[in-house]
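Illustration 12: Transcriptional regulator, LacI family.
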Amino acid sequence: MHSVDNPGVLGLVTITWMPMHNYRKPPTMADVARRTGVSPMTVSRAFKRDSSVSQETREAVLSAAEELGYVFDSTASNLRSQRTDFIAVTIPSINNANFADTVRALSDRVSERGLQILLGYTNYDVAEEERLIEQLLRRKPEAIVVTGGKHTPRARKLLSNAGIPVIETWDLPEEPIGHVVGFSNALAVREMVDHFVSVGYRKIAFIGGDADRDTRGTDRRAGFIAALKDHGIDAPRLIAAGPPPISMREGANAMGQLLERFPDTEAVICVSDLSAFGALTECQRRGIAVPDRIAIGGFGDYEIGAISVPSLTTINAFASEIGAKTAELILDVLDGKLDQPGRVTIRPDLILRQTSR
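Figure caption equivalent — predicted structure in token form:
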């Protein structure tokens, strides 16, 4: 053991080097077989729920494995069967509650069949998505799930030639690669615009992220502009809050810009509930009454929107249902029940709360 005392700004810091640990050799299948009095092949079959192994023998094998701390290595078995038993998934962000709900529902459903999730996040970057797709496909997943329907040409080619089920989620692409579970982001925002106009709002703004990265946010912005145009309203009140994902702080800053540039704004639709919550706090900071002076709408039905005061008007995209439906589709394809591209359309729901009429 060796230590160094290093006085610094925070006081005395002690750095300690411990002797190198000699790791114990892990127990093997042969160890479990000897403990149970069966062959290694029987042990393997017991872990794979092979019907040729009796319940009594299986319980004995599993009990011995538990006592020894043995973990079954499925690699060799998977190589023989040409199965990897995992689903590859890409999402834009790992700290987004909506995407987390989608992955959780997907994982819960496929895990019932012994399948696991291998997750990668793209940080809203299509070039990074392309790199991840290539890496994930090298591991031979049973299926691959990607978020959104816009990809680089090379990513589309990789997915098209993958030879496994490909599911695009959170979107309804015009030219799907394979299967689709999603909704129209543009039409979802249109529903909120239509409602706002119907209750008398005319000077309506939109807060979103950089249009060249957040493709779903871009679709929501396009739906906002198209809906206002159909109502005979111009759409100059567009505030870009920065690169996605838009945080609460960035939403607050964007609301500040909006109020400075367009102080007569009557309502604002935000690309997400997080940015909408930030916009709400900026109004509260400035003493602007919501919804009496200005209405606010978000997207995603985050928990924070439901418990905020006032609570946020929002759009529920049914993130968990997207994950569950994606899992069902994957299992149907793997079971041979579906030999044509599947398309599951989710219908988002406008939730009217206290930040709007």
